[in-house]
Design goal:
This protein is an alpha/beta fold and about 350 residues long. About 30% of the residues lie in helices and about 10% in strands.
């Protein structure tokens, strides 16, 4: 299967069609009726990894009126009443979760920073690993990549460097950062020579697993050796998916890579969830894309979606998470809701 033949997507997303538009139709250009939907689930659906834990019937109980109709969430499913995470009772061992999608600009870095900050707010110790030579997660937390003396590159490539020497505290309580810069691009090439090259990140993280409750890895937009290292070091994956027309393209390639890593390198690896990002509920196509993702991935799609807002680009400029930049914004609430869902599926602390 290649990226253009993800079952069920080829008919609807063949690239030659126009986006369904939210604009009112003009008399000169009437909008064609939507094409017949092909709702066949993916061939490899049964073989695909299941989430770590399903939401219980209790979690799915209606929010207010137990007998009334359940409110539908943005994914078109009844919105569960997500449990508030209890305060942590201990620290570690960490759940290691990779934010992974080889498609660029889908919200991996934004999700790493803001989910990390939202989990840190619950009192859990969180480490963010910038595993992208672009250094976006570092920049998003106010760290200038070119000023770094040590980065994740040194940790991977120099045996005498320990994680503690590279990790920095951030301005957010309970949130630490393992920063990266362009040096990391050299690791992609240099690691090829290493013995057990796919396990390099796992090996260097091992000593700090007891020190954190959650470690989030911000992957680069590629399925190269660095990303394979991230998947090998993780027990969960969150797949941010932009709610737009071409979002499903490439998902087959991603699930294929995940399957290979599970078979050959890391049988513990599971998809924690798929996260709709940059969602604009006013447009038909955003809702259709989300609908399609739910058809294909069922309960692995998070109930929480992240809506499109200019607040996120603003947070990058100020170098802090949305939870501190605009703590009472709906964008911050969405990431706090996501934190509840992630902690319900991957209990930590
Ligand atoms: N919900 C959102 N609403 C509006 N803009 C967003 C949203 N989420 C992310 N963005 C913006 O979209 C751009 C891409 O986001 P981000 O850097 O998180 O994606 P990415 O998947 O990490 O990209 P890359 O593949 O290049 O690493 C950024 O400018 C970010 O501020
Ligand atoms: Mg990024």
């Amino acid at each position: 299967m290649n990226e253009s033949t993800f079952p069920g997507t080829e008919q609807q997303f063949n690239g030659s069609e126009q986006y369904p538009s939210s604009e009112p139709p003009t008399p000169a250009q009437p909008i064609a009726p939507p094409p017949q939907r092909n709702l066949t689930p993916p061939e490899n659906y049964a073989a695909m990894p299941r989430p770590t834990a399903k939401l219980t019937a209790e979690d799915l109980a209606p929010v207010s009126d137990p007998s009334g109709p359940r409110k539908l969430g943005p994914t078109g499913r009844p919105m569960p009443d997500l449990p508030e995470p209890l305060p942590p009772t201990k620290t570690g061992p960490a759940q290691v979760i990779a934010m992974c999608n080889q498609k660029g600009g889908v919200g991996k870095t934004t999700t790493t920073i803001n989910l990390g900050a939202a989990i840190a707010e619950t009192g859990r110790k969180v480490l963010l690993i910038d595993f992208d030579p672009q250094g976006s997660a570092s920049i998003g937390l106010g760290v200038q990549p070119h000023d770094l003396e040590l980065s994740v590159y040194n940790l991977l490539m120099q045996r005498d460097i320990t994680a503690g020497e590279v990790i920095q505290a951030t301005n957010v309580p309970n949130l630490d950062l393992l920063p990266a810069n362009i040096d990391l691009s050299a690791a992609e090439v240099q690691l090829v020579q290493e013995v057990a090259r796919e396990y390099t990140l796992q090996r260097v993280l091992e000593p700090i697993i007891p020190n954190y409750d959650v470690i989030l890895i911000d992957c680069a937009p590629s399925l190269g050796l660095l990303t394979v290292n991230a998947l090998t070091a993780s027990n969960g994956i969150v797949v941010p998916l932009e709610c737009e027309f071409f979002a499903l393209r490439g998902l087959a390639m991603l699930t294929d890579t995940i399957g290979k890593v599970q078979d050959r390198l890391n049988p513990k690896l599971e998809i924690v969830g798929i996260l709709g990002t940059m969602f604009d509920g006013r447009t038909t196509h955003a809702r259709e894309v989300l609908d399609r993702v739910v058809q294909a991935f069922d309960e692995r799609v998070f109930h929480t979606v992240i809506r499109r807002t200019v607040k996120f680009p603003e947070t990058t400029v100020v170098g802090e998470p949305i939870t501190t930049y605009a703590p009472s914004s709906s964008a911050a609430t969405q990431y706090r809701d996501l934190a509840k869902e992630v902690l319900a599926r991957c209990p930590a602390g």
